Amino acid sequence: MDNQSIVTYKSAFDNIVHEITADDGSKMEVWFARELQTVCGYARWENFAVAINRAKDSCKSQNIIIDDHFRDVTKMIEIGKGGKRPTEDIMLTRYACYLIAQNGDSKKEEIAFAQGYFAVQTRRAELISERLRLQQRLEKREELRASEKRLSQNIYERGVDDRGFARIRSKGDAALFGGFSTEQMKKRLGVKSGPLADHLPQVTIAAKNLATEMTNFNVEAKDLQGEPLITTEHVQNNRTVREML
User: Fold this and answer.
1) I need a labelling partner for 35 at 20 to 30 A (CA). Which of 60, 72, 192, 220 fits?
2) Are 41 and 111 in contact (CB under 8 A)?
3) Exposed, middle or buried, 21 (CB in 10 Å: 0-12/13-18/19+)?
4) How many CA within 13 A on the CB side of residue 93?
5) Would you give per-residue pLDDT tens digits along the chain (245 residues)?
6) Angle at 10 between CA 9 and CA 11, to 5 degrees
């Protein structure tokens, strides 16, 4: 495949991408199977449908919901003299296009190009999604760090030192983690150094933050004094959050 062919194919594939608005208001790119058929070098729909069905089977084998990536639609096409007729089509996500390319006729130069084209695009989307998840996790971690700092200040003002704070937090963790203390959870997760929260899933970080904020609120509202009362409060809040989860 020479450079000119690559430029030509890229232009053809770029020209058939459509942008739609999803239910949540976000923008997403989609392709239509009838248009993809042409740029993939298939003259007959029946032959291209074989690759589509194989792609669906591949999707199903990975326990991915087929309808999330292959959506049946009806489009009106012109048939001359201003007339139109309905034609069955399939709206495809980038991932669906990638699977179709992987299951297409690799002897076709267009399919060979499509395999690389959608693999690159799919990986790019994965990296963006991964980056967003990491950013969301870091934001939740910062929220937890702030709420724990506030709890530390609250209990210090009520006669509890740093060691007492560590005991309160560990007993709260035990309530949240089904009886496992902070140190036990570190061992289970293989954490050799640093805070446990730096190694927890985002949902667990959010759970710890919620329990800590509940403790902060009640310590201030009830003016709880001393380690025993604050410990009881924190343990109960963590148990409540665990039950919610």
Assistant:
1) 60
2) yes
3) exposed
4) 19
5) 667 778 888 899 999 999 887 666 777 888 999 999 999 999 999 999 999 999 999 988 888 889 888 999 887 777 666 667 788 899 998 889 989 999 999 889 899 888 888 876 655 555 545 665 666 777 888 888 899 999 999 989 998 898 999 899 889 999 999 988 788 888 888 888 888 888 888 888 889 999 999 999 999 999 999 999 999 999 999 999 999 88
6) 90
CA distance 157 to 154: 5
Residue identified by tokens 């048939």 is 79
What's the CA gap between 73 and 13, in Å, rounded?
A: 20
Give CA–CA dist 240/231, Å, rounded. 14
Helices (H), the chain: 3-14, 33-39, 45-61, 94-102, 109-156, 162-176, 182-189, 202-222, 227-244
CA gap 126, 114 in Å, rounded:
18
CB within 8 Å of 120: residues ≥ 6 apart:
none
Type of residue at 103: N
Residues across the chain = 245
Q: Which residues, at least 6 apart from 141, have a Cβ–Cβ distance to it below 8 Å?
A: 197, 198, 205
